[in-house]
Design brief:
Elements: E1 11-15, E2 18-23, E3 27-29, E4 36-38, E5 44-46, E6 51-53, H1 56-64
Antiparallel strand pairs: 1-2, 3-4, 5-6
Protein name: DUF2093 domain-containing protein
């Protein structure tokens, strides 16, 4: 039986040029806003902080603090 990853947060290892899925899911949470980010739409993250961001603006905000 196939298991669906719908509405389940993935655990990722963020790398400088991509990410590795550690635990399957369909989204991650933005470290600033808490918004769910579908993996297909994930564009912004920090490998150093191991955080995902929903937008460039939120990424910039997080990196300034």
């Amino acid at each position: 039986m196939l298991m669906s990853n719908t509405s389940r947060a993935a655990k990722l290892r963020f790398l400088p040029n991509g990410f590795r899925v550690l635990s399957p899911g369909d989204h991650v949470l933005c470290a600033v806003s808490g918004e769910a980010i579908p993996l297909d739409d994930l564009k912004y993250w920090s490998a150093e902080r191991q955080e995902a961001y929903a937008s460039a603006e939120l990424a910039t905000q997080a990196l300034r603090s």
